[in-house]
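JOB MANIFEST
job_type = single_chain_structure
chain_count = 1
residues = 90
[input]
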Amino acid sequence: MGLVKSMGSYVMLGIGIAGVSMVSTKRNRGKVVNVYSKMRTKVLKLWKKQQSEVDHLLEKAGHPNPYDIGGSRMIDEGSMTGIQYYNRKQ
């Protein structure tokens, strides 16, 4: 186990040294900044998409639509679970 931890620290050190040597020249620095900004844009776009899906589900959970058959069926099944549990206990 100790060997694995020490190897991990050497790998991280190697990555750090490679990163520093990569950004040591101005041309490479520009490339790194460009890649970073592209990745940041993609991650933020994905995060906003997932956040909007979660917001939609939370909004729907608070105000169920009576014409949404799937949602109404799910609420129906959930309300019956407590009743079935109570009936089994008696």
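[summary]
Residues 48 and 76 are 32 Å apart (CA to CA).
The two ends are 54 Å apart (CA to CA).
exit_status = 0
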